[in-house]
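Before the break, one more example. Copy the sequence into your notebook; we will annotate it together after we see the structure.
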Amino acid sequence: MSLQEHFELLANYNEWMNLKIYDASAALSAPELICDRGAFFKSILGTLNHIAVADTIWLQRFAEHPSCKLTLKPIIETPKPTNLDSLLFSDLTQLYDFRQWLDKLVVTWVSSLKEQDLSYTLSYKNMKGIPACRQYSSLMLHFFNHQTHHRGQVTTLLAQAGQDVGVTDLLALIPDNHHA
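Here is what the structure looks like once it is written out:
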C-alpha cells in the first residue's frame, strides 16, 4: 500500500469509528452526555466537540496546500474555533450532523491527494500564533492519531456510562490477504 492509500484507510477508519461512537452516545440522555466524568474535556459531549474543533482547525490548515484549496474550500468557509475546548454544538444531533459532514469532507480530501502532495511542507500558526513548518504527511498522521486518541477516551467514558462501542481496532478494516 502506498502512503496515500494508508491515509485513505485512516480516513475510512475515522468515519467508521465516529459512526460507532455517535451511535453509542445517542443511547444516552442529555444529562449523561454532559456529565463531568473527569476526562480532560470533562464529558462525552465535551470530548466529541473537542475532536470536531481540532479537526476543523487542522482541515483549515490543510486547505492551504495548493492542491487542496478546492477540495477543502467548504471548511475554509466554516468559522474558525477560538479554543480547543469550544462547544461547537450543545446538542448531540447537531454535532453528529457536523461530524458526518466533516467525515465526508475528510474522505473526499484524502482520496483527492496524490502521493507527491504528501511531501509538501505546510507553514501554519498554532492556536497561540507560533509559526511552524512541517511535512504534510506527518501532520496528516498527527491529525488521524489525535482523533484516535480522543475517541479512545470517549469509548472509556461510554463504557463508564454502560455503552459498549464494540470493536474499535483498525484491523477490522484492513483487508485479509489470506489466500487459501
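The radius of gyration is 17 Å. The first strand starts at residue 121 and ends at 125. Try to locate both features in your own notes.
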